[in-house]
Sequence to fold (102 residues):
Amino acid sequence: MLLGFCILSFSFTFSVKAQEFRQSAKHVFWKNQEGGTEKEIDFGRGVAAKILGKYPIFKDEVKVNYVSQIGTGISAQLGPELRYYFGILDTEDINAYAAPGG
Fold:
């Protein structure tokens, strides 16, 4: 019975935290929409700069071009509003990042 209570308590706490996160993310999303595309691009550049300050870009041109070609092909379906940039980070860490504004 105690185990059941602990699981129920954990799932409730997790559910509340997830809901709080979704509300916060929704607020940030709509707040950034108010400024339009230029604000989104500026914000994304700042995020990208922080990521690139921590991890350098991978130097293998063949692999970087391959990833860029795939990303460009996918982003071409989204419309011409934003120009997207793609790269591979030179790190052993498992990661994937996407910044607003392309």
